[in-house]
Design a protein that fits this description.
Chain lengths: 224, 194
């Protein structure tokens, strides 16, 4: 491939001709090749033609095609991919999520038991409320958190309903199943709170459940 | 022997990265999942990506389909862009990889140099002044090249990849890459009657 000319009058090799035309011939071989060209019209003409081709190639336009029409399909494929990723990717994420949900359910069951045993003891006394100076009990603060989460959840649920039509059925089913589990926990907690409205442990669990529901819906919202 | 390819300052690589801070911000937003930001990148880079695909595939229709595949792939891989090169350079590389993969899948084997006989049709002559018509004719001539020779020619002479890089991408010996290149140039000279 790199055979150099052994006789001064031998024509340039194909490699030398292309190397001279595109300026890639190593300097140590260039002098010899140029010496030959000085006396060989055939090789000089051939290198000049190759060089002219190189010049034309370098003047090729960058590209100016009207391609806006392709974007909607690209966008659609990207959106579909995001939703599919939500439905299929998460072997890891889904199992992690299921563990969290299982944790909530187990937590609710345990809390119902513990709350009745300890709830009244941990409930703030009237003195504590006065000492806080703002007239707001910790129970009320937690209840506020629940309300904030509830409002966010409601808004995200509306988004979810709007996007349901564009989601894969398997993804929708997964999300709905997870929502049912969280809603079950919320319902149990609300029942318990109806019986013991000032129990702080139950209220904290309720707030955590709403937060879990909000996080799940946000995950769906971000993915779609 | 390793040839050091002269740098080809392809406008496609740099023209859209002039306002770097703005471009960086758009890329960052796209990486965070902002499809509208990605649309900005699409509008800036699609013509160059299309030109790459059209020259490598030899067909405008196939190139348009490929542009879609390339941008979807780029979206999926945005997280791997670290800003070590211009976004256009990175995107070009993604484009070349997608095109080569598609060519392999389509069994348009770029290795089949000897079987890949060129169309021996009439010369595609263009005005010698290098004007717009001549450039269009050159693109038509490139489209006529056999797939293997065209791929190497586009990667080396238009995109500026080195012989060794091309050899690695195509799984060919560097000498075979040179043979493809020289053949492509000779055929183009014949087609263009240059």
């Amino acid at each position: 491939m790199t055979a150099s000319r052994t006789r001064f009058d031998a024509h340039l090799t194909e490699e030398e001709r292309h190397g001279l035309a595109d300026d890639s011939l190593p300097p140590d071989r260039r002098a010899d090749a140029e010496s030959h060209m000085a006396e060989c019209a055939e090789c000089t003409g051939d290198v000049a033609r190759l060089h002219a081709l190189m010049t034309r190639v370098q003047q090729l336009p960058e590209g100016s095609a009207e391609l806006d029409a392709l974007w909607p399909e690209i966008r659609s494929r990207i959106e579909r991919g995001k939703i599919a990723a939500l439905g299929t990717e998460p072997a890891v994420r889904r199992s992690r999520s299921q563990w969290r949900l299982a944790g909530i359910v187990a937590g609710v069951a345990a809390a119902l038991l513990v709350a009745f045993l300890l709830g009244r003891e941990s409930r703030p006394r009237a003195d504590d409320v006065v000492a806080s100076g703002n007239g707001r009990t910790p129970v009320a603060s937690v209840a506020d958190s629940s309300r904030v989460y509830q409002e966010e959840v409601q808004s995200l649920l509306e988004e979810f309903e709007l996007r349901r039509a564009t989601m894969r059925p398997a993804t929708t089913a997964t999300v709905e199943r997870d929502l049912r589990i969280i809603d079950g926990a919320i319902e149990e907690l609300n029942d318990a709170l109806a019986r013991d409205p000032d129990n702080p442990a139950l209220r904290q669990l309720l707030a955590a459940s709403y937060r879990q529901k909000r996080d799940l819906l946000k995950q769906v919202d971000n993915a779609s | 022997m390793t040839l050091t390819h002269r740098a080809i300052a392809r406008p496609s690589v740099t023209a859209n990265d002039v306002s770097a801070p703005l471009a960086d911000d758009v890329v960052r937003r796209a990486q965070q999942g902002d499809v509208d930001a990605f649309a900005v990148l699409y509008r800036a880079h699609a013509p160059a990506v299309h030109a790459l695909a059209r020259r490598m595939l030899g067909s405008d229709g196939a190139a348009r389909e490929m542009v879609q595949d390339i941008f979807v792939r780029a979206w999926e891989r945005l997280g791997s862009f670290r800003g070590e090169s211009a976004f256009g350079t990175w995107l070009h590389r993604v484009g070349v990889n997608v095109i080569l993969n598609q060519l392999r899948v389509a069994r348009r084997d770029v290795h089949r140099f000897t079987e890949d006989e060129p169309d021996d049709g009439a010369a595609i002559a263009g005005p010698p002044d290098g004007g717009v018509e001549a450039r269009i004719d050159l693109d038509a001539a490139i489209a006529k090249l056999p797939a293997g020779a065209r791929t190497v020619f586009v990667l080396y002479d238009i995109e500026g990849y080195a012989h060794d890089e091309i050899a690695q991408m195509l799984g060919l010996a560097p000498g075979t890459v040179r043979a493809h290149l020289w053949r492509a140039r000779r055929l183009l000279m014949r087609y263009l009657d240059a």
